Structure to design on (325 residues):
């Protein structure tokens, strides 16, 4: 099992040995407290750009649904006649300098999430470590940009923000409640009280939270774009292969359609190569959109992607417009 999944499994169940890491969690927490203090008191400076900045982030390690939420909001901004753009760290990519992501950009340079957003939305997408500098360069090239969305930028305080969203997985929530590395938390749960909106992926009875749900209708062939219903995929044995932060979310979706399949898990953002699939030539290979974007150059006719439609409480978008536009 990949090392990040080993730790993830421990974070979301009772584990005695994880307590050995608590001293390191105090160090990590102390560093975060100091950094936040320096920014809050102006000793470290946040940079404000000319357009509103919307942060979509989380306080836990692993996938919670930030990119699907970003894509949903991008679509709504476009429908309103606005010009959104997205910036990202470019996790999983090798770009050392600030880089514009094009549909032709190699995923090994851009990272899977940034390339997926570019491919699906067609808006300007830039990646780079320093999000403030990335935003400035983006605006220089695309001065008509109305709003910048920063994917996974909650802890990057150098870029000033106008609206913050935290995404929470309603199934996993906050795991054992410990700060990294003893637990999955990037920072204290008190951070939830400081943001503009909390989005729950799944169901929540709390009226203060906005709900986000995934809708899946079919599989789509990665080569031919043919669509088939779920029963049709069972003509062959199925292997579900994924390299995302929360693979069980993907697997549970498949299980919800009574599919029988073999599970194969790689580290989050792992960059696939064709040799990873040689042994599955006689299978139907199913994967997420984020994983599929890394396989287009060598995929064969047995590669199938599970497209997502994201339904988000419409109050969220209206609240964003009211505050920042």
């Amino acid at each position: 099992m990949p090392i990040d999944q080993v730790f993830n499994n421990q974070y979301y169940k009772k584990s005695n040995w994880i307590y050995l890491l608590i001293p390191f969690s105090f160090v990590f927490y102390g560093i975060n407290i100091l950094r936040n203090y320096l920014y809050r008191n102006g000793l470290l400076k946040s940079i404000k750009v000319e357009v509103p900045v919307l942060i979509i982030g989380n306080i836990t390690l692993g996938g919670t649904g930030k990119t699907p939420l970003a894509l949903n909001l991008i679509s709504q901004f476009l429908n309103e006649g606005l010009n959104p753009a997205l910036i990202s760290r470019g996790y999983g990519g090798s770009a050392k300098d600030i880089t514009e992501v094009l549909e032709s950009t190699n995923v090994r340079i851009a990272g899977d999430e940034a390339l997926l957003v570019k491919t699906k939305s067609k808006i300007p997408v830039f990646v780079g470590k320093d999000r403030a500098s990335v935003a400035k360069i983006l605006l220089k090239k695309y001065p008509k940009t109305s709003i910048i969305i920063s994917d996974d930028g909650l802890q990057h305080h150098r870029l000033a923000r106008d609206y913050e969203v935290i995404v929470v997985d309603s199934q996993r929530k906050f795991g054992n409640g410990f700060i990294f590395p003893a637990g999955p938390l990037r920072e204290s749960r008190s951070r939830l009280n400081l943001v503009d909106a909390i989005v729950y992926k799944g169901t929540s009875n709390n009226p203060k939270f906005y709900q986000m749900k995934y809708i899946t209708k079919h599989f789509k062939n990665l080569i031919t774009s043919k669509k088939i219903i779920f029963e049709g995929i069972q003509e062959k044995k199925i292997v579900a292969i994924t390299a995302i932060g929360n693979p069980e979310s993907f697997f549970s979706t498949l299980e919800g359609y009574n599919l029988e399949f073999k599970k194969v898990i790689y580290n989050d953002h792992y960059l696939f190569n064709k040799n990873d699939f040689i042994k599955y030539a006689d299978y139907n290979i199913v994967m997420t959109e984020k994983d599929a974007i890394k396989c287009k150059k060598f995929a064969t006719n047995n590669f199938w992607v599970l497209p997502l439609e994201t339904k988000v409480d419409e109050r969220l978008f209206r609240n964003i417009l009211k505050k920042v536009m």
Remarks:
- The chain has a mean pLDDT of 93.
- Residues 217-307 form one domain.
